[in-house]
Amino acid sequence: MLTGSSSTQDTTAHTSPAPRTAVQLLRQEADFRRVYLSQLVSLGGDWFAMIPLLALLQELTGAPLWGALVLAADTLVIAALSPYAGVIVDRVDRRRLMILCDLLSAAFIATLLLVRDESTAWIALIALGGVAGVKAFYGPAASAALPNLVPKQDLLTANALNGGVWGVMLAVGASLGALLASAVGTYWCFALDVVTFCLSAALVQRVQKPCGDHRPARARSRVRDDLRETAEFARTDRRIIALVLAKPGTALGNGVLALFPALGAAVFHVGAVGVGLLYAARGVGALIGPVLGRRLLSGREDRIRLLVLASTLTFGLAYAGFSAVTWFPLAVLLVVTAHIGGSMNSTLSSFALQSATPDRIRGRVLSADFMFSTLSLGASQLVAGGLTLTMNAQHAALCIAAIVITYGVLWWTLADSLRQTNSSSAK
Fold it and tell me: How many CB atoms lie within 10 A of CB 306?
């Protein structure tokens, strides 16, 4: 732990600015507001398009195969590109990279307008795979830029706001996507998604602050050398390894989401609207979790390890209860509770990683974090599918919950280095 006189500590405490509220941060930090709004509109467009696309593929092909392939592509492409994306994020202007990503995403989504019958269903796979590849760069770039857009005392609040974006757009965007598809047609939803990506690019283009540490260009090393440098950095600071392994705890439980349709029909006896409510409940939990995490951690960064454990166990225990209930309102409440834990885990671990890594390597570390989380999510989906071949959906959900709980306990025992988070934060 750091040592020093109490007077020095008191002076520091008195001179450190107090963190601003979310409203104050959005109102006073224009560049952060622009990046935040860009993520809001692009994620909203994603959900406007995704739900109608899955329905369209089912209608055109008469089978769920293409929809499943689209969802798998979204996970696997991100995981495959993430290590290389991190190298790029640390080498180029992050603002320009985010703009390019938005424009490429708009171009890929535009090709969905060509999906008109079963013979053109493959275009959807290429389009969503392309968007997933772009996400592998955009996500780490936006996250790595965050410490450059807001002061350190506001970084936790900024992460809480960013964590809530995804939850809001899942809860609202998916519902509006279904309504818009019914009202104006599926292809208008695709067109709207193109517009949202263009608007997102326009917002990021107006950012004035540098989104990275612009030093004189150094000699370009090989990608392999950059990845080796990242691994060496992680080995010298064991907190990094512990934090990168935090998100997989709850990501390993997200395979339960694939069981919602089966549970809705066989256990809760609800139709498509009821299943939609379960997914919306996930979004509500994802909105609450970052806010709760900010309140619990604010000013007490030594609580990171305990709060990550608590959030992981909350996720696992809530889904264990979910697997045993038959009353639908209680099931919805348990899904909300689970994803409060899941989103709190994600927000706190991202904040801690941003705080612990210097700018020159931050993109690579956050890309590795993104990769492990995505791989865990994909593995959970495969496990859920495999379990349903040998047991009913309720038992499969219980097994997945048990995996999450076990992982949380193991992570706690291996993450003792996080007790020293305050004493060795990166400068």
Answer: 15
- pTM for the structure as a whole: 0.72
Convert the pLDDT of each residue in 201-259 to its tens digit. Answer: 999 999 988 887 655 444 455 656 766 777 788 788 888 889 999 999 999 998 888 78
Task: Give the DSSP letter of residue 246.
Answer: T
Rounded CA-CA distance 400/263 in Å is 14
Residue range(s) of every CATH 1.20.1250.20 domain in the chain: 24-211, 223-427
pLDDT tens digits along 291-330: 899 889 877 778 889 999 999 999 999 999 999 999 999 9
DSSP string across 279-316: HHHHHHHHHHHHHHHHHHHTT-GGGHHHHHHHHHHHHH
| Alpha-carbon span 4 to 11, nearest angstrom | 12
Q: Which fold has domain 24-211?
A: Growth Hormone; Chain: A; (1.20.1250)
pLDDT one-digit tens code per residue, 260-292:
878 888 899 887 667 768 877 888 898 899 889
Which residue type is seen at 162?
Answer: N
Direct distance between the N- and C-terminal alpha carbons of the chain, in angstroms, rounded to an integer = 16
| CATH number 3.40.190.170 given to 223-427 | no
SS3 92: coil
Using CA atoms, how far residue 311 sits from 238, 308, 314, 334, 380, in Å, is 21, 5, 5, 14, 18
Query: Once rounded to an integer, what is the mean pLDDT over residues 151-171?
Result: 77
45 falls in which pLDDT band (50, 70, 90)? confident
Burial of 209 (0-12, 13-18, 19+ CB in 10 A): middle
Q: In the numeric block, which tokens belong to residue 98?
A: 């985010």
